[in-house]
Amino acid sequence: MPLNLRQLASLFLGIFAVVLSLPAAAWELSGHKTIRLQTRDGQSIVLGSVEFTPKGESSTFSLHLDHTRLKDFFLSMKEFKCLEGEEIHCHVPYPYPNPGTVSRNDLRWLEHSLLFLYKQPKDFGARLWNGLYYEMVLTEKGIVGTPQAVDLVQIGAPPADTSIPPYGPGDRSEIPRDSRWIRSLSIE
Fold this sequence. Notes:
Elements: H1 2-21, E1 31-39, E2 44-55, E3 58-65, E4 71-75, E5 78-84, E6 88-92, E7 101-103, H2 108-113, E8 115-119, E9 131-138, E10 143-150, E11 172-174, E12 182-187
Antiparallel strand pairs: 1-2, 1-12, 2-3, 3-7, 4-5, 5-6, 6-8, 8-9, 9-10, 10-11, 10-12
């Protein structure tokens, strides 16, 4: 009997070692996910949700912002939905038709759907050159977006090709960490 117990223990340890060596399950672009903003003072603000629907190698998405958390601001002759805090952080909906799709390697249309502008509470009007673009990466726990500076004036006119997201890497600039009230965005 001791031999069988040793064999069983050996088999168990072998299976355990194989399980530990397997990569963690990849986060899927599927289903209902929560969008959160993280502030530089450590707060987490639920902004809304996104619904992913798989379609082959990609997924379509539908964005749902929680308008009870956002306040209406009339800036430069246009209404914006904004968060108030150390700064005013306003959502700028991408104004042109787009496929609304993402894949594990391409999150650009989701990035374009979550454009923002920021302003100081004392500032008058919208300053579209103070745009924020959240460059997103897929992790094992979800999507993480890091803010980059972008000039939103660029989307004042439709792009020549509406099937290509207009803000490429050359249109965005790195910003110092914690220089903005909202330091990151996550989708989990």
